[in-house]
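Morning - zinc ion inputs below, output right after.
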Amino acid sequence: MDKLDSKRRSANMRAIRAKNTKPELVVRRALRLAGFTGYRLHRRDLPGKPDIAFIGRKKAILVHGCFWHGHDCREGLRRPKARQEYWLPKISGNQMRDERHQTNLISQGWSVLVVWECETSHPALAQRLAAFVGSGSRD
Ligand SMILES: [Zn+2]
């Protein structure tokens, strides 16, 4: 691996792990507008540090980028030719990790909602979030 390559790679790694990404901010804004403000972000004590967690309600919202998490949509199925040896295993690794984290959350009594990047521009996003967070008993 040459120097430039490793440099670029760490830049990619940062991008993948970035918190407070745009789709995440869109979801948080929609939640606030719907009156759901009591969420916590990236809690380290929960499996996979979910993007958004309502602790008392035990509801977690995971906001996934379509490409890096392998969504079944146009962006998620995109297959650029360059550097496949890097991003193909990365995507399948992310998918496996996502699944493990969701399973762990659910086994600890959590409800999980996955919001894909491509869904954050959908007009029904706010309704969907409210239905998820607002269902069941309040804390
Ligand atoms: Zn998508």
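Note: Strands lie at 40-41, 52-54, 59-64, 111-116.

O.
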